Amino acid sequence: MFSLILLAVMAVIILALCLNIWSLLRGPAVADRLLALDTMYINSIALLLVYGVYASSQLYFEAALLIAMLGFVSTVAVCKFLLRGDIIE
Amino acid sequence: MTTLEWLISGLLCVGALFVLLGSVALLKLPDFYTRLHGPTKATTLGLGSLVLASMVFFNLQLETLSLQQLLIALFLFISAPVTAHMLIKVAMHHKLKHHHTTQGVDKLPAD
């Protein structure tokens, strides 16, 4: 029963990821695509967290933390590039 | 199912619902300024709930001490507003089109 609920939660998060891919492809502006990519990062962290509970393993949190940090840094870097035309001035 | 498992399931369902809500908002809202609200608020709240669920699972159900989840939640709660601020700065810089009912566009700086 509990693992079934976990699978259902994972299915909902995967549905959210598919909607994100749709809005990533639709755009229309670069900022919209960037926002969709950032949301995809957060949703993949959510998926990893739920999978960690499903597998009863703490290994996945390290990966989730890594995705969180890299996602934040890359989003800020692309924002900086769009704002200034350069990342480190 | 034990009471603890019901609690974890409830937190997981709330989290998944809010994460889905954020993605639907990203898809359905009319312009970028409104679209930014969904992922930055609903998705962050949903992820907080999921993190809480996994913390309850590992610390109370399996009785192992794990604080990495707290680190993830803390980091995301700090980084989400910063990301939103950068994205809205990009949108204002590029002067993106706005829906006619969007409030506050008259406060955008002129050229």
Describe the structure.
The complex is a heterodimer of chains A (about 90) and B (about 110). Chain A has helices at about 1-25, 30-55, 60-85. With about 90 residues, chain A is mainly α. In chain A, helix 2 (about 30-55) runs antiparallel to helix 3. Chain A is flat. Chain A starts with a helix and ends in a 5-residue tail after the last helix. The mean pLDDT of chain A is about 90. Chain B is mostly helical and about 110 residues long. Chain B has one domain. Chain B is about 75% helix and about 0% strand. Chain B has four helices and no strands. Chain B has helices at about 5-30, 30-35, 35-60, 70-95. Classes of the chains: A mainly alpha (about 90), B mainly alpha (about 110). Chains A and B meet through helix 1, helix 2 and helix 3 of A and helix 1, helix 3 and helix 4 of B.
Q: What is the structure about, briefly put?
A:
The complex is a heterodimer of chains A (89) and B (111). With 89 residues, chain A is mainly alpha-helical.
Give the helix tally of chain B. Answer: 4
Give the ordered list of helices and strands of chain B: HHHH
Main sheet properties of chain A: none
**How much strand of chain B?**
under 5%
- Give the domain tally of chain B: 1
Low-pLDDT stretches of chain A: none
Percentage of β-strand residues of chain A: under 5%
Q: Report the average pLDDT across residues of chain A.
A: 89
What is the helix fraction of residues of chain A, given as a range?
Answer: over 70%
